[in-house]
């Protein structure tokens, strides 16, 4: 297992926890995953170490809250790189080898946010919409292979994301909350069963189709009101 993150302390803590429960080798790469050079660096690392990558999980992400006209441009460009450019590059580099071996797994972690417009978190919602659409497209392209390609779209999950999103207060906990372990286990199991879009609860499944049933202006107004209530 290869773990990559820019936060060395948390990266090593995560690796240590995995090592305490599993016997496999865990390698860590302290890298800024949002940088355009990252994908090639991690791919070259696997080649130099003679490592065959069976599974790829694109999970890194963060959010920025506020009116687009007032939020920090560099933070949003970094987010776009992390949510869009990095998954594209990593998938491009590792998918070919998986197809040649006719085995492998790719799980992109998107969000329920990707199913509707997101006022006050416009870049986050937009990039997650891209990631969902991108995954569905390449999953269909490679449907005849033994490579599993899926996108996991949870609602609110109990992670540091809620604390670091950049709002004045944390999002309120509601019935969409899920524990990271439960969401991860669901995503892996659903992917291995051949499900392309993985929604980990009935609530997520219902809300994913709701924007198709109501006018788009109603959907964006509803999201705006929720964001103001939860984070304003």
Name the features.
single chain; 232 residues; alpha/beta; Rossmann fold; 4-stranded parallel beta sheet; two-stranded parallel sheet; 8 helices; 11% strand; globular
What is the overall number of helices?
8
CATH overall fold name: Rossmann fold
Q: Write the CATH homologous superfamily.
A: NAD(P)-binding Rossmann-like Domain
Distance between the termini: 40 Å
**Roughly what is the average pLDDT, rounded to an integer?**
90
Q: Unreliable runs, pLDDT <50, ≥5 residues?
A: none
Compressed to H and E, one letter per element, the order equals: EHEHEHEHEHHEHH
Number of strands: 6
Tell me, briefly, the overall form.
globular
Describe the model.
- The chain is of the alpha/beta class.
- It has a single domain (52-231), classed as NAD(P)-binding Rossmann-like Domain (Rossmann fold).
- Helices cover 51% and strands 11% of the residues.
- The chain contains eight helices and six strands; from the N terminus they run E-H-E-H-E-H-E-H-E-H-H-E-H-H.
- The strands form two sheets. A four-stranded parallel β-sheet has the order 3-4-5-6. The protein has a two-stranded parallel sheet with strand order 1-2.
- The termini are far apart.
- The mean pLDDT is 90.
Write the layout of secondary structure elements.
Elements: E1 2-5, H1 8-21, E2 27-30, H2 38-48, E3 55-58, H3 73-101, E4 104-109, H4 122-141, E5 147-152, H5 161-164, H6 180-192, E6 197-198, H7 202-213, H8 216-231
Parallel strand pairs: 1-2, 3-4, 4-5, 5-6
Helix pairs in contact: 2-3, 3-4
What's a quick, concise take on this entry?
This protein is α/β, with parallel strands linked by helices and 232 residues long. 51% of the residues lie in helices and 11% in strands. The radius of gyration is 18 Å and the shape is globular.
């Amino acid at each position: 297992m290869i773990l990559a993150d820019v936060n060395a302390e948390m990266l090593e803590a995560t690796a240590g926890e995995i090592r305490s429960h599993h016997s496999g080798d865990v390698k860590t790469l302290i890298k800024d995953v949002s940088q355009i050079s990252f994908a090639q660096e991690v791919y070259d690392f696997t080649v130099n170490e003679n490592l065959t990558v069976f599974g790829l999980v694109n999970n890194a992400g963060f959010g920025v809250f506020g009116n687009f006209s007032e939020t920090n441009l560099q933070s949003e460009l970094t987010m776009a790189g992390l949510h869009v450019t990095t998954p594209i590059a990593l998938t491009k580099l590792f998918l070919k080898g998986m197809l040649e071996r006719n085995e492998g797994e790719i799980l992109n972690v998107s969000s329920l946010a990707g199913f509707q417009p997101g006022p006050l978190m416009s870049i986050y919602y937009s990039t997650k919409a891209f990631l969902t659409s991108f995954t569905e497209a390449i999953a269909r392209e490679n449907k005849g292979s033994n490579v599993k390609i899926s996108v996991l779209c949870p609602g609110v999950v109990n992670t540091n994301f809620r604390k670091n999103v950049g709002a004045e207060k944390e999002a309120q906990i509601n019935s969409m909350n899920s524990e990271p372990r439960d969401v991860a286990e669901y995503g892996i199991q659903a992917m291995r069963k051949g499900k392309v879009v993985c929604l980990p609860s009935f609530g997520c499944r219902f809300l994913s189709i709701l924007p198709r049933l109501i006018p788009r202006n109603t959907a964006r107004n509803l999201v705006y009101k929720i964001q103001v209530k939860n984070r304003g």
